[in-house]
Specification:
single chain, alpha+beta, DNA primase, PRIM domain, 3 domains, 5-stranded antiparallel sheet, 12 helices, 46% helix, 16% strand, globular, Primase C terminal 1 (PriCT-1), PriCT_1
Length: 392
């Protein structure tokens, strides 16, 4: 679950104000909307006075995106495209007070702030450096708003979008840096062997679990080490990674490898009431029946009982299982698009133009990603229909 800290002022639209005394722990739409109505900062400052020298700590990074890079609407970036550029990364998008308004002689266009969740930072220079690092990866963010004492103006009736992910922007950038470094290395030199192999082991275990396949991939990667690591040292690194993998598996949002690698089991043949009815009937035939004269009947272990609440529990169980399946597929396709270059094209051109620029492999990945999104939406629609008695 996303959690970040915002400090608000007792005013709106004041560039001269430097006092931000109100601490807000953000965990959902309501708390974010309440905070966004006031001028705010994303760091704690000594005596609540905003200045670089007073910086104490921050657990999120705000960046501006005004779409000033182009006057062509097809090339404008949306929060959804930010999510595609940073797969599995947690952030909140909030449309700014100038969203879809004329600003600085530029036409109305999407304008918003992105709040990336980060591990707590206690150094103002490190905080600024992280902003620059993100902007270097995704140049559509405003490079003139990167200091550690940045204020953001409040918005009347703010529009907020939450993008839950399994990692922070720091994790994403670290992985990206590592992969770029690894692609440039024909060998892993002495002095970097242990760290490199530990990193690989952690990634492979998270992806494949404690399996022989994962271990063989790990050993294959160790062949880059020069000079080679001793077998005992490799085993020690692997065992440490296994302990790390066991810890990761307890974290919220973790997807077990066997689930990650599984195919669809609950996806309907078509996204319609009929398609969902087929799945519901197949999966819960022994627990749920429907009769026009009685409504839904649920088998309680002893007899068939007419009960709307119990039938809704069955529908909720199916929906929950389907949402897990859809989320797994979404994450798989996001990673796939990251690897085959589709994200780079999306970031450069926007979703509308990118579709025509994809190669066959990229287009297929994007098609499967969109299908997974539609599957997720259909699951949610199904339960709402069932809940309100429209599914018969």
């Amino acid at each position: 679950m996303i959690s970040l800290t915002i400090y608000t002022a007792d005013c709106v639209g004041s560039l001269s104000n430097c006092i931000y005394p109100n601490k807000n722990i953000i965990t959902d739409d309501q708390s974010m909307k309440a905070a966004m109505q006031h001028d705010h900062v994303t760091a704690e400052y000594k005596d609540n006075y905003r200045s670089t020298s007073n910086f104490i700590s921050a657990d999120n990074v705000p960046l501006d995106l005004d779409n000033d890079h182009s006057d062509n609407p097809d090339e404008w970036i949306t929060p959804f495209e930010v999510a595609m550029a940073f797969p599995e990364v947690s952030f909140v998008a909030v449309y700014s007070r100038n969203h879809m308004k004329v600003k600085d002689e530029k036409s109305a266009r999407p304008r918003f702030h992105v709040y990336f969740v980060i591990p707590t930072v206690i150094d103002s220079k490190e905080y600024t450096a992280l902003k620059k690092r993100i902007t270097a990866t995704f140049p559509y963010f405003d490079s003139n708003a990167l200091d550690s004492a940045r204020l953001l103006f409040g918005v009347t009736n703010p529009e907020v979008e939450f993008y839950e992910g399994s990692r922070t922007i720091v994790d994403f950038l670290d992985d990206l840096d590592f992969e770029e470094w690894d692609n440039q290395q024909s060998q892993v030199p002495q002095g970097k062997r242990n760290n490199t192999m530990s990193h690989y082991a952690g990634k492979i275990i998270k992806r494949y679990g404690d399996t022989e396949e994962a271990y063989q991939l790990y050993l294959q990667k160790s062949e880059k080490c020069n000079p080679p690591l001793e077998e005992a040292e490799l085993k020690t690194i692997w065992n440490s990674a296994l302990k790390f993998g066991a810890k990761v598996s307890t974290q919220e949002g973790y997807i077990p490898p066997e689930q990650y690698n599984a195919g669809f089991e609950l996806k309907p043949e078509d996204y319609s009431d009929v398609g969902q009815a087929v799945v519901l009937s197949r999966e819960y035939y022994s627990r749920l029946r429907y009769s026009p004269s009685t409504g839904y009947l649920v088998y309680n272990g002893s007899f068939w009982e007419e009960s709307d609440p119990l039938s809704q529990e069955v529908a909720q169980e199916l929906t929950t299982r389907q949402l897990v399946e859809a989320e797994v597929e979404i994450k798989k396709r996001l990673k796939e698009m990251e690897q085959n270059g589709a994200f780079e094209i999306l970031a450069q051109m926007g979703a509308k133009k990118a579709v025509s620029a994809f190669n066959e492999v990229q287009a297929h990945s994007f098609e499967l990603y969109e299908d997974a999104i539609n599957y997720k939406m259909d699951c949610q629609h199904f339960f709402i229909q069932f809940l309100f008695g429209h599914f018969r």
